UniProtKB/TrEMBL annotation, chain A:
This is ABC transporter permease. It comes from Jiella pelagia. It is a multi-pass membrane protein. Belongs to the binding-protein-dependent transport system permease family. CysTW subfamily. Residues 58-246 form the ABC transmembrane type-1 domain.
TrEMBL record, chain B:
Residues 81-288 form the ABC transmembrane type-1 domain. Its main location: membrane. It holds the Pfam family BPD_transp_1. This is ABC transporter permease. It is a multi-pass membrane protein. It comes from Jiella pelagia.
TrEMBL record, chain C:
This is ABC transporter ATP-binding protein. GO terms for molecular function: ATP binding. Belongs to the ABC transporter superfamily. Residues 4-234 form the ABC transporter domain. PANTHER family: SPERMIDINE/PUTRESCINE IMPORT ATP-BINDING PROTEIN POTA, SPERMIDINE_PUTRESCINE IMPORT ATP-BINDING PROTEIN POTA. SMART domains: AAA. Keywords: ATP-binding, Nucleotide-binding, Transport. It comes from Jiella pelagia. Coiled coil: none annotated. It holds the Pfam family TOBE_2. InterPro entries: AAA+_ATPase, ABC_SmlMolc_Importer, ABC_transporter-like_ATP-bd, ABC_transporter-like_CS, Mo/tungstate-bd_C_term_dom, P-loop_NTPase, Transp-assoc_OB_typ2.
């Protein structure tokens, strides 16, 4: 019974990883038509280095993700402090309002942004994507930092104040250092959300101002070469590394509390 | 004596910001942003869904309910809705069976570090680019793709098994995309099932299938339901998977809505369809949140 | 006037009255325990003194200064938390030196004071460790050192020992008392544990539903409880309710004497008698004479605990409890007729 269960788990993992591995391998295969037998080459990666469009889209993606991470982490951390450390009327409603960006299908959110940004003159382009990405990332940041705050006992701040700290001093000397792992984790998470975001970017992009996923999508739709495999592999590995980093940081309680 | 004579050397008391002001200052940036980027757009889109046509130039604005009659006026949409629904149901169903089994295997057949590593391995693809993963499947299931090569290794004259551009291909891609959700929610639910309950059932003569269907499945029901909601909701709004894996047959509510915004430029119709879908999503949430609450209290 | 003065303090949370009209002086240099059942408002009162909670009404004075509107950080208090609340990202020395830093004491001077405080709590040389490398008892001592090193005007402790096991707890009680005596700090100590309160304190204050019903020296509060609640909460008591007849109280046909001043003839009063103050003898050997009060009764059950015996008895409609030493090893059987006797000064009149 145990053996069958383990075999089944192995099959599930094969199902999850096989296409990814095949895709990545094809990026190292010489045939532009994905023909086998396998003939190792880094040709497609070299091609990629000369593909201005993809490179530019890649930089756009990275800058967008960095800005999203910085803004969403700053704003979301402040909101988390209010939502988890203060009591006020309407707190639970405000927490529920975090859900729409997470729970409503991105197709709907994305088209709604398209309509609204067009209508108000904000328009489309990287700035519009930034507005959208930050909005998507804020709820995740609030939840990750909020969870961190929940495991961080409030009496530490009180202890600092009883020893003469002003609330602000207590925050910077006690809360912030202990919360830092959660905040770093939240930033990584926001970065990954933005880097992998396709739907919202797709609706808000204009030709010449796109991100990597949008560029990959149009390439897939129009006909592609193993170059797309190469860039996809890079994107995939980057996300995996970031998420593993997140898992390392955002443990409840952070580094300090653990023994 | 001055009030603070005793607190020698302590920072003097400055006027304190009223508490509500500090709270508002902390909350305002995030919620203003969310309002601008999500809530107002949704409201605007709702308003758009009552327009006769996309307001362009100086065409007069005409308010109407006609967009919500689309299913009646354009019967082919019913077929599309049915296709989307069945893709959603198949995806959710397959994810439920496979995900529950995988979670059960994780909980009952692994332990310690191995379990932790396996769980991370199962969840990791979920946090990578969905588009790239869908693209990966085209490498495997197209005619002459990896699947064919693999089969022809054993049976050189096998006919092509490639099934790219079919509905099963869409379901396959979606299952691949959303399976980790179900594994995670079922895993959490199964983890909390007390070992003693299972032993008690066995001591009363229950065989494994009785334990499975009378004990484990009911106790893990909240996990199954949560997973099902988390999968069904985005799946019926999917448009990129049907486009890439379904090709010509991949017409779903998602792609129809997308078309209204990117090709047909019929924003009012697209908005109305999107809000109809949102209504379905909310109905699903409402129905099952009742079920979840009941199971939480018993 | 130094020490801590609480004047007419009241606090409500919505409709719940948590504290009502608390007026109390905590004398300079004394060790006062706040004792009361769960939810009686002990923590709230302590946090009002500390400044974490603002009272709805009333004033708090610490060391003579009115601090009612002063935020926590500008009051010179030392607080020890139930969960210790040591900063996990700072060494023991940094934890203890934290409050000194806030007072502008740094460098050598701070180090000397930190070392002295660690010495006082018997943890010399532990400065370089981190809280997670300490046992529960050691963490508790660091928390105490951190609170006393700043020479606070008042030391506030909220059930600081409740997370420790029994043995460690007794050890820490002794330590705490020694440190308080050496430092001479005005100390307010919240506890659930009546034994702890009696052994440690100069004064015990009993809280009941947001009021201090009695405050005094432990022996005074124990021997002369003022209310039924105080008598019951601190120790055990038998309550005898009857009507005043002359200079005694008539209860279920018997006449019970007390040394307390009684109200007018015919008034209903309640007397409290501690179970260990009552002597129990078999009816046939009972002598009358020296004792003022005696009551015939029947043993309904005996609880045998080795060193001591607890008798549950009936006398008419009255149910009584008596503690006796197990001196001759042959407890009276259930059903035995006995005579209970006690001195008049042990019948204490209580309110309620
Ligand atoms: N922030 C708050 N909001 C609402 N009610 C509160 C709050 N803090 C305390 N209370 C209520 O005030 C009452 C007294 O609480 P407090 O914590 O002072 O009791 P306590 O005597 O310390 O009890 P314990 O021995 O259990 O610690 C309780 O009924 C409690 O529910
Ligand atoms: Mg308390």
């Amino acid at each position: 019974m145990i053996k069958i269960a383990r075999l089944f788990l192995a099959l599930v993992l094969v199902f999850l990883y096989l296409p990814i591995i095949v895709m990545a391998a094809m990026g190292f295969n010489a045939s532009p038509l994905y023909a086998l037998p396998f003939d190792f080459t880094t040709h497609w990666y070299q091609e990629l280095a000369g593909n201005g469009r993809l490179i530019e889209a890649g930089w756009n993606s990275i800058w967008l993700a960095v800005l999203t991470a910085v803004i969403a982490t700053a704003l979301g951390t402040l909101a988390a402090l209010a939502l988890w450390r203060r009591t006020f009327r309407g707190r639970s409603i405000l927490r529920i309002l975090l859900l729409p960006p997470i729970a409503i299908p991105w197709l709907i959110t994305g088209t709604a942004m398209l309509v609204f940004f067009f209508w108000t003159g904000i328009g489309r382009g990287l700035h519009a994507m930034l507005i959208g990405h930050v909005a998507l990332a804020i709820p995740y940041v609030v939840l990750v930092v909020g969870t961190g705050l929940q495991t961080l006992r409030a009496d530490l701040e009180e202890a600092a104040m009883s020893l003469g700290s002003t609330p602000i001093h207590a925050f910077f000397r006690v809360t912030l250092p202990l919360l830092l792992p959660s905040i770093v984790g939240a930033a990584l998470f926001a970065f990954a959300v933005s880097l992998d975001q396709f739907v919202i970017s797709y609706f808000l992009s204009v030709p010449g101002m796109t991100t990597l996923p949008v560029e990959i999508y149009s390439a897939i739709r129009k006909g592609f070469t193993p170059e797309i495999n190469a860039i996809s592999t890079i994107l995939l590995v980057a996300s995996m590394i970031i998420i593993l980093g997140f898992a390392r940081f955002a443990r409840p309680g952070g580094i300090g509390e653990r023994s | 004596m001055p009030p603070e004579a005793s607190a020698a050397g302590l920072p003097a008391t400055r006027r304190r910001m009223p508490s509500w002001l500090a709270t508002a200052a902390l909350l305002l940036p995030s919620y203003a942003w969310l309002t601008l980027a999500v809530l107002l757009p949704l409201a605007a889109m709702f308003a758009f869904s009552f327009l006769h046509a996309t307001p362009l130039g100086n065409k007069p604005v005409v308010w109407t309910l006609e967009q919500y009659r689309a299913f009646y006026d354009q019967p082919y949409l019913l077929g599309v809705a049915w296709a989307s629904l069945s893709i959603g149901l198949w995806t959710t169903g397959i994810c439920a069976v496979v995900g529950f089994a995988a979670a059960l295997a994780l909980v009952r057949a692994t332990a310690g570090r191995a379990r932790e590593t396996l769980l991370i391995l199962v969840l990791l693809p979920f946090w990578t680019n969905g588009l790239v993963r869908v693209f990966s499947w085209t490498m495997v299931i197209r005619e002459g793709g990896f699947l064919d090569v693999f089969v022809r290794w054993f049976w050189p004259s096998a006919p092509s098994l490639g099934f790219l551009y079919t509905t099963p291909a869409i379901v396959l891609g979606l299952v691949h995309g959303y399976l980790p959700y179900m594994v995670l929610t079922c895993y959490i639910a199964l983890l909390s099932v007390d070992e003693a309950v299972i032993e008690a059932a066995q001591s009363l003569g229950a065989r494994w299938w009785t334990v499975l269907f009378k004990i484990l499945v009911p106790l893990a029901a909240p996990g199954l339901v949560t997973g099902a909601i988390l999968i069904f909701v985005p799946v019926i709004g999917a448009f990129m998977e049907p486009r890439i894996l379904g090709g010509r047959v991949g017409v779903t509510m998602g792609t129809v809505i997308e078309d209204q915004f990117t090709q047909a430029f019929n924003w009012p119709l697209g908005s109305a369809l999107a809000f109809t879908m949102l209504a379905v999503v909310l109905a699903v949430f409402a129905t099952f949140s009742g079920v979840l609450r009941r199971s939480a209290t018993t | 006037m130094s020490g801590v003065d609480v004047t007419a303090v009241a606090k409500n949370y919505g409709a719940t009255k948590v504290l009502t009209d608390i007026t109390q002086n905590f004398e300079s240099g004394t060790f006062t325990s706040l004792l009361g059942p769960s939810g009686s408002g002990k923590t709230t009162l302590l946090r009002i003194i500390a400044g974490f909670v603002a009272p709805d009404e009333g004033a708090v004075r610490i060391a003579g200064a009115d601090v009612t509107g002063v935020p926590v950080h500008a009051r010179n208090i030392g607080m020890v938390f139930q969960s210790y609340a040591l900063f996990p990202h700072m060494s023991v020395a940094a934890n203890v030196g934290f409050g000194l830093g806030r007072r502008g004491i740094r460098g050598k001077a701070a180090k000397a004071q930190v070392d002295e405080a660690l010495e006082m709590v018997r943890l010399p040389g532990f400065g370089g460790r981190y809280p997670r490398q300490l046992s529960g008892g050691q963490q508790q001592r660091v928390a105490l050192a951190r609170a006393i090193v700043i020479r606070p005007d008042v030391l506030l402790l909220d059930e600081p020992l409740s997370a420790l096991d029994r043995r460690l707890r007794q050890e820490m009680q002794v330590e705490l008392l020694r440190i308080q005596r050496e430092s001479g700090l005005t100390t307010i100590f919240v506890t659930h544990d009546q034994e702890e309160a009696l052994t440690l304190s100069d004064k015990v204050a009993i809280l009941d539903r947001g009021r201090i019903v009695q405050m005094g020296r432990p022996a005074e509060v124990y021997e002369r409880p003022r209310t039924r609640f105080a008598a019951e909460f601190l120790g055990d008591a038998n309550f005898l309710t009857g009507k005043v007849r002359g200079s005694a109280v008539e209860i279920a046909g018997a006449t019970i004497m007390t040394e307390d001043r009684l109200p007018a003839e015919g008034a209903t009063v309640t007397l409290a008698v501690r179970p260990e103050k009552i002597a129990i003898r078999p009816a046939e050997t009972a002598r009358s004479g020296a004792v003022e009060n005696s009551l015939p009764a029947t043993v309904s059950s005996v609880i045998y605990t080795g060193t001591a015996l607890t008798y549950m008895l009936r006398s008419g409609d009255l149910h009584l409890k008596v503690f006796a030493q197990n001196s001759d090893g042959s407890p009276l059987a259930a059903g035995s007729a006995v005579v209970l006797s006690w001195s008049a000064r042990h019948s204490v009149m209580v309110e309620g």
